[in-house]
Design a protein that fits this description.
seven-stranded mixed β-sheet, 18 strands
């Protein structure tokens, strides 16, 4: 359910000069997944988001399916899966079709870069583990049984808290759209007049939590970008998510309260 939010330092009007303390201009970005005709958020960058210093291909993320021409019942025992990779490279795709892909991840390594899914939205269900998502929209903490909705094009980094020997290792499920559609509540649960959740909806505004401060991570960082063919490329961004404020109707990433 999109509704207006704002966070951080903002100018009094849209599309006007907004200067940093040193006199330089903040870079304004209009972020949306449907161009200028859909929900958008305006992000104010300390440094221009176009400052890319280089890129190179890393590996192919295209899934390889065991069967594609037949439908059958399967029982997948994913509990014995051994941890591998980080929250991005450790994802193991289980199923997929023309609309979405479903994967399970048991990360064994920290995610020391930022990631942007240029292919589709992501719905992440945290099975075990807790931590923080650092994104271009702010900071979002999470824990077991939480859902995180990440829109296409958002830059983020998942950092899990350390676990004790007697605690289960981090594990989460990811559903990713691949057909250009977006993840959101069904229209039958939303008021057409106010975008409010209706009384018969299984969840409402009380169950949602938005990103919070801090917004600024003023540092040079490496980002990886997943493209439509499934090839993951590396792009070196300068100060990739250093922002002073954001506002708008593009409310994601979003946290569903457990």
């Amino acid at each position: 359910m999109p509704y207006y939010t704002k966070l951080g330092q903002l100018p009094p009007k849209r599309h006007i000069q907004f200067r940093r303390p040193d006199g330089g201009l903040y870079a304004e970005e209009v972020f949306g997944t449907e161009g200028f005709v859909g929900p958008t958020s305006t992000l104010y960058h300390i440094h221009p988001p176009t400052q890319v210093t280089g890129w190179e291909p890393i590996y192919s993320a295209k899934p390889e399916y065991v069967e594609t021409e037949i439908m059958r019942m399967r029982h997948l025992k994913t509990a014995p899966m051994k941890p591998k990779g980080d929250p991005i490279t450790g994802r193991v795709i289980l199923f997929g079709n023309a609309d979405c892909e479903m994967a399970v991840c048991c990360p064994a390594e920290p995610m020391n870069y930022y990631y942007k899914n240029g292919q589709g939205d992501e719905c992440i269900f945290i099975h075990f583990g807790s931590g923080t998502v650092y994104s271009s929209f702010g900071t979002l903490t999470f824990g077991p049984k939480d859902y995180i909705i990440m829109p296409k094009g958002a830059i983020y980094q998942m950092v899990f808290d350390k676990t004790n020997a007697d605690e289960p290792k981090p594990r989460f499920l990811v559903i990713e759209t691949v057909n250009g559609s977006h993840i959101g509540p069904p229209p039958r649960y939303i008021s057409k007049r106010t975008s409010q959740f209706l009384e018969h909806s299984p969840y409402c505004e009380r169950d949602l939590r938005l990103p919070e401060l801090p917004l600024t991570y003023d540092e040079k960082a490496i980002s990886r970008c997943a493209s439509r063919p499934g090839i993951t490329c590396i792009a070196i961004f300068t100060n990739t998510i250093a922002r002073c404020g954001r506002l708008g109707w593009m409310f994601l990433p979003l946290h569903f309260q457990r």
